[in-house]
Amino acid sequence: MDSDTSGKLVLLKIPSGEDTIAGRMYIAEGEGPHATIIMLHGFPGVVMNFDIATSLHQSGWNVLVINYRGAWGSKGDFSFTNSLEDVLATIKYIKQDDLTKENRIDVNRIALIGHSFGGFLALKTASLDPSIKTIVSMSGANFALFVQMMDQNPAVEDKLYAMLKEGTFFLNGSTPENILEEVRDNIDKWNTFLFAPELANRRLLLTAATHDKELPKEYFHDPLVVMLEKANAKHLLTKTFETEHLYTNVRKELTLTLQKWLEESL
Description:
The chain is an alpha/beta fold. The protein has eleven helices and eight strands. It has a single domain, classed as Rossmann fold, CATH 3.40.50.1820. Helix 1 crosses helix 11 and helix 2 crosses helix 4.
């Protein structure tokens, strides 16, 4: 039997739908089992948050960074729907007995950390899976809000289309038209403000950026906080950083915030 309990980085091939997505599993040092964090990148994946993953790994947590179908080496076609299914499939996959033993995973302590589109995925997944008790959304998206903005101002749709066109260049099987159609078809299901009742009893950290031009704090972050407070969220922490959407100049401060909060919450 392999008695190696050193920290390590391994690649996982995670089945999702009829395809396979890529996962990088940072296994914490020690016998474990360890609490495990699933990191969810934004659209299309400009920042993968490997710096945060490495720091959290060194602090004693397992960290799994996944790429959704059609993104950055994962098989299949990218879509928002597929990405949500990919997160749910990942949780199911790492809870298998052989995977938990091999990767020293505590299935009762699984957290989701997502940025932007990944923040939306973290919140939506947790609303569907009550086993997820610990969630971080960093400048999380709300697609129902995008639809409302587009309907009120055609210039917003033009801007969003341009952003989607640039992003889908790096993703397989995806177009701006397909994504916009997905968003309109799921306007109620993908409204993060409506997730508040399901998330009120979870441990939540929501971060925002003061100079966020992609997902302005006053539209995307502040109303969600209000909704959660109205739902009597008991374990909600919010943190605002003086930075832009990608948190480029506050990575160390962001990581320390996550570490401190996870020590208390996971």
